[in-house]
TrEMBL record, chain A:
Gene3D superfamilies: 1.20.1050.10, Glutaredoxin. It comes from Branchiostoma floridae (Florida lancelet). Exhibits glutathione-dependent thiol transferase activity. Has high dehydroascorbate reductase activity and may contribute to the recycling of ascorbic acid. Participates in the biotransformation of inorganic arsenic and reduces monomethylarsonic acid (MMA). This is Glutathione S-transferase omega. One of its GO terms (cellular component) is cytoplasm.
Automatic annotation (TrEMBL), chain B:
It comes from the Eukaryota. PANTHER family: GLUTATHIONE S-TRANSFERASE OMEGA (PTHR43968:SF6), PTHR43968. Residues 103-235 form the GST C-terminal domain. Gene3D superfamilies: 1.20.1050.10, Glutaredoxin. It catalyses: methylarsonate + 2 glutathione + H(+) = methylarsonous acid + glutathione disulfide + H2O; L-dehydroascorbate + 2 glutathione = glutathione disulfide + L-ascorbate; RX + glutathione = an S-substituted glutathione + a halide anion + H(+). GO terms for molecular function: glutathione dehydrogenase (ascorbate) activity; glutathione transferase activity; methylarsonate reductase activity. Its EC number is 1.20.4.2, 1.8.5.1, 2.5.1.18. Transmembrane segments: none annotated. This is Glutathione S-transferase omega. InterPro entries: Glutathione-S-Trfase_C-like (IPR010987), Glutathione-S-Trfase_C_sf (IPR036282), Glutathione_S-Trfase (IPR040079), Glutathione_S-Trfase_N (IPR004045), GST_omega (IPR005442), GST_Omega/HSP26 (IPR050983), Thioredoxin-like_sf (IPR036249). It comes from Branchiostoma floridae (Florida lancelet). Exhibits glutathione-dependent thiol transferase activity. Has high dehydroascorbate reductase activity and may contribute to the recycling of ascorbic acid. Participates in the biotransformation of inorganic arsenic and reduces monomethylarsonic acid (MMA).
Length: 240, 239
């Protein structure tokens, strides 16, 4: 199946064959990246249909009314929202369990995710813009959020323990894109301030499921620039 | 019995709840906290409440819950915040009378309906309350169009099936407050929202909903005070 993204005006692809898990995705979307990591970590077989998330194909809305990636299709079932997808595949498919059973451990993941959603992800790309209004304060809040994560990484290598778990895969996509902030605006986190997060990043980068899907900083930047210029190119980096 | 009056900046940190005791930090009119109060009532869990002034938050509250929002649960030194996280946590530590669906696809379905709610409805709800008069017709239409997604998701007596469950409680607080939109011309008609209007009648009969209920007058009074910039968290409490 071609990796090229379906755009507005495209014909709908045939539905997935019986028993086949299909992921509707976009190669640069960090939310879809979460689900790609979870599927790969669990060794789940799936096929990918890429879409342009700016110029969305009309057929996508009849599958998911929000027309957002990631969206999973499986024997007539549709699941969307990255963390909902990840929890669903974790429970329904075999393979290493990514979510803990213990209620407080599970709750901790939800709380850290809430801190991330409040302090880090809305500010992520604002930091890339050197002319962003209030950038100093935004950076302060961003680092505050990171310090909560720094506190959470304990004696174990990953948030999930000896191996990455749900939270590791939920957060990783933005850490892969952190170098983009440095190239675009000079911003970076200091290892001296976040030693455990740096160690965690190194450990994550070494994981096969992370390496398999990693894109380098120039490619990430290429996509971001194409979006900024009003001509998003979800196929950036693909062979013609 | 501790006072229900909202604790504010400068107040002394209350001592932790006794061993094995569950405490909820809340605000009487907060819809997110009401989600958790509904779960607690539905599950028949004993708990104590400390209400917090969300405009002038006590420092001790921000130390417990860095995002400074309610609901927050505290039990045996453990703190949990975020309404949906609290609700699942309650089902985890009090496993009988489980409210969260056990089937993974049904759980996913309920989460997706909440995502539709967040994307298509709730933003317009607040914009309608705080927006200008000339913006209201357009906002009202967007709100009602968005609500059709929720109407279509309701195919049984309750969102969760024959009985109320997680999604019913997680959505209910905003339907209890719909009366606040009536004065600005936004109402659910039976012909456009046959499922939702019937569901609202069913929900109002449930004991757990009645336990957590505030009247349209109380909601309107709180809403008015909130919009005026001086929220009165203690409306209805004896002096």
């Amino acid at each position: 199946m071609s990796e090229k993204a379906f755009k507005t005006g495209s014909a709908a692809p045939d539905p997935p064959a019986p028993g086949v898990l299909r992921l509707i995705s976009m190669r640069f979307c960090p939310y879809a990246h979460r689900t790609i990591l979870a599927l790969t970590a669990k060794g789940i077989e799936y096929e990918t249909v890429n879409v342009c998330t700016v110029n969305k194909p009309e057929w996508f809305f009849s599958i998911n009314p929000l027309a957002k990636v990631p969206t999973l299709q499986h024997d007539g079932k549709v699941v969307y929202e990255s963390l909902v997808c990840n929890e669903y595949v974790d429970r329904v498919f075999p393979g290493r369990k990514l979510l803990p059973e213990e209620p407080l451990e599970k709750a901790r993941i939800g709380m850290l995710q809430a801190i991330w959603d409040a302090k880090i992800s809305p500010n992520f790309y604002k930091i890339a813009d050197k002319d962003q209004e209030g950038r100093e304060d935004i950076i302060k809040v961003f680092k505050e959020g990171m310090s909560y994560l720094e506190k959470e990484v304990t004696s174990k290598t990953f948030f999930g323990g000896e191996e990455p778990g749900f939270l590791d895969y939920s957060l990783w996509p933005w850490f892969e894109r952190l170098p983009v902030l440095e190239v675009a605006s000079g911003f970076k986190l200091e290892e001296a301030e976040f030693p455990k997060l740096f160690a965690w990043q190194a450990a994550m980068r070494d994981r096969p499921e992370v390496k398999m899907h990693a894109k380098d900083t120039p490619t990430h930047l290429q996509y971001l620039m194409s979006r900024k210029q009003g001509n998003p190119d979800p196929d950036a980096g693909l062979q013609a | 019995m501790p006072s229900e009056r909202a604790m504010k900046t400068g107040s002394a940190c209350p001592p932790p709840p006794g061993p094995g005791k569950l405490r909820l930090y809340s605000m009487r009119f907060c819809p997110y906290a009401q989600r958790t109060r509904l779960f607690l009532a539905a599950k028949g869990i004993q708990f104590e409440t400390i209400n917090v002034n969300l405009k002038d938050k006590p420092d001790w509250f921000l130390e417990k819950a860095p995002l400074g929002k309610v609901p927050v649960l505290e039990k045996d030194g453990k703190i949990v915040y975020e309404s949906l996280v609290c609700n699942e946590y309650l089902d985890g530590i009090y496993p009988d009378k489980c409210v969260t669906p056990s089937d993974p696809l049904e759980k996913a379905r309920q989460s997706m309906v909440l995502a539709l709610w967040d994307a298509k409805v709730i933003g317009f709800y607040y914009k309608l309350m705080t927006g200008k008069e000339d913006e209201r017709p357009a906002l009202g239409k967007q709100f009602l169009d968005g609500l059709q997604f929720i109407e279509k998701a309701l195919t049984q007596p309750f969102f969760s099936g024959n009985k109320a469950g997680a999604l019913d409680y997680n959505l209910w607080p905003w339907f209890e407050r719909l009366c606040m939109l009536k004065p600005i011309g936004v109402e659910l008609s039976v012909d456009k929202f046959p499922q939702l209007t019937a569901w609202m009648e069913r929900m109002l009969q449930l004991p757990e909903v009645k336990t957590c209920y505030f009247s349209p007058e109380a909601h309107a009074q709180f809403g008015k005070s909130w919009m005026a910039g001086s929220p009165d968290y203690d409306i209805g409490l004896e002096e």
